[in-house]
TrEMBL record:
SUPFAM superfamilies: Carbohydrate phosphatase. The keyword Hydrolase applies. It catalyses: a myo-inositol phosphate + H2O = myo-inositol + phosphate. Keywords: Hydrolase, Magnesium, Metal-binding. It comes from the Bacteria. PROSITE patterns: IMP_2. GO terms for molecular function: hydrolase activity. The keyword Magnesium applies. It holds the Pfam family Inositol_P. This is Inositol-1-monophosphatase. Its cofactor is Mg(2+). Belongs to the inositol monophosphatase superfamily. Its EC number is 3.1.3.25. The lineage of its organism: Bacteria, Bacillati, Actinomycetota, Actinomycetes, Micrococcales.
Amino acid sequence: MTDHAASALLDIARRIATTVGETALEERRRGIAVEATKSSPVDVVTAVDRETEARIRAMLLDARPDDGIFGEEDETHVGTSGLNWVVDPVDGTVNLLYDIPAWAVSIAVVDGPPDPLHWHALAGVVVNPVTGEVFEAARGGGARLGARELRVNDDVELPKALIGTGFGYAAERRRTQAEVLLQVLPRVRDIRRIGSAALDLSAIAAGRLDGFYERGLNPWDHAAGALIVREAGGRVGGAGGAPESADLLVAGGPSVYDELLALVVEAGAAAG
Ligand code: IPD
Ligand code: CA
Ligand code: CA
């Protein structure tokens, strides 16, 4: 896959994410309600989540009929090309519900299966329809916020690092995550829980956060954001040198990454 091909895929991802993002925002302005719950009573899905994913799928099938699609709200579509689109139609659904302006459309395309342990991410875009911000990266082509080239912060020590994190929807997982936080919070500048992993990762690329960690993320939460961090000069991974996965994702600039990873693993972020 050449850089040129990755940037052509990024063009498709950007066009689709910005188009469906505008429609999602219009729908949000007309009102919103919970349609169903998924893994727990606080894991909600709205019509905007479902309709946005349906629009993304239709546009992808039109533009890239041979590729697979792996999205949060519908069945996996198996393709024949070896490329897979990894889609979170709304990352930050609780923010969408409460009209907090931090939710995003996240679309990535990967070479290989829709599994972060085995894929090679080629392009990714994270669009915040409320702010109009478009974070994007193509493999080998750097990361951008609109026209601005992004670089992670790289002169930060962990005690002065602003760290993002997130919590799952299951009560028992949250209890463990709160215990981990007890050990992390006194060792860093402060914690942010923005409510969208895709925007957390994009924020690292833009220098708005120094690091991030979360256990239990799904592939669609981080596929685009992790590429954006890497292309902005940051690092992303899991425990013990493994790639990022549901077991653990840690991200940050090179100056905090190793220390943050060691801290959260010691605190138990990769267990339970
Ligand atoms: C969630 C968000 C949140 C993270 C959760 C994710 P959703 O995605 O990314 O920040 O903490 O783990 O599930 O449900 O809003 O698409
Ligand atoms: Ca998500
Ligand atoms: Ca979602």
